């Protein structure tokens, strides 16, 4: 039997999972991300700790699998897009890595929009500009930490940094860097004109050589082998942006399925042979399947809200579950199920880290009464997160010319039957998920199986290794209920639109 290791570096957790050639999950291990929040709107991570976390989960996954490390044919990494990881000329991290939920540079895209720069950039990159993209963060660093730019040797995305630590070889993989406003989507290469538009032309030589997802980009070094337990010389594939890995992991290899990822970010996407060039969607980037583009609507408004609720509003339940070694997420799901869909709960706006409506919008519960309990508030969070996905979906559906058969769901919500049903009801579309827990890592394993020649292409590998589960259909009665709630959700967003800039003014006093 042949085995493939997938590493998934998300915004809230670091995960490793081992799969066989049929896509069966043999073992897995995970660690929570040690997030650093030095100021409101700043989210960072110690890059040395990040590498140590990857080493730890790799070791645990191999130990639990009972598989000989020599039998692991390939290692593949995926990671969150956006954010920024700088490697120094002194062969050390320049500073903390910046995670994709960071919003310190919020005013740069706003200013660039007013100056016409975003419109000019879109003609080259086919992307709007987000505050958490590397171009925004590099512009911010140039203005606030110029010494960090001067000390930089390589500009990495999350997973490209991890692959560099495994192999000692610097590459920028196309699915990630095409989603960062670095690349001209018409030529497939870096574009100096883009860097000039954003005022960071001096960063050109800091961008690593480009590679593809299924390229072998190096081999596990002796030093990395000692640190993480992998066999020295194990091939390491190019890997992918985690949203590509998840899409491949749920077998989205045609134009008739929507992929939704309910993780830290609300990711909503489909693949197309042509980019959408009229500016009506947030992002176009290269997909890991050759000749396809990934059409994406996204914001950091998804299941990360559950983590905040759990840590801040359920501390005693969290501690009790830790002591009893029970699953807190199962209890949270039971709480939500105990409140029927027809019950009026507060409207929750899942904008704790940023939003998909206004650059300064904040998380909010609207409509709380003395009748409501934490169970009602938790249901509000589940509903608000799912409504945010629908908000993105409606924009996507206006550009998708194909008949959508179903949504393929990945991320934390896909592990909950109740929440999956909520997605089906709120989107009014059938929803499917796969039978493994770590969808992104499975996508990595599929990429690794192609990189090492076991399968001839990603479509064949996904068909062999991705096992799509039960089709969950919308409940017609709940569809009607949620449609009314969704209209109230949108009205709430509109009603609060005028107040968000005032919050920013107070924050800056």
UniProtKB/TrEMBL annotation:
Signal peptide coordinates: none
Kinase as UniProt keyword: yes
Domain Carbohydrate kinase FGGY N-terminal: 3-249
Keywords tagged on the record: Kinase, Transferase
Keyword Transferase (UniProt): yes
Gene Ontology MF, one: kinase activity
Pfam families, per database record: FGGY_C, FGGY_N
Entry-linked PANTHER family: L-XYLULOSE_3-KETO-L-GULONATE KINASE, SUGAR KINASE
Similarity comment: family membership: Belongs to the FGGY kinase family.
Protein name: Carbohydrate kinase
The organism of origin for this protein: Lachnotalea glycerini
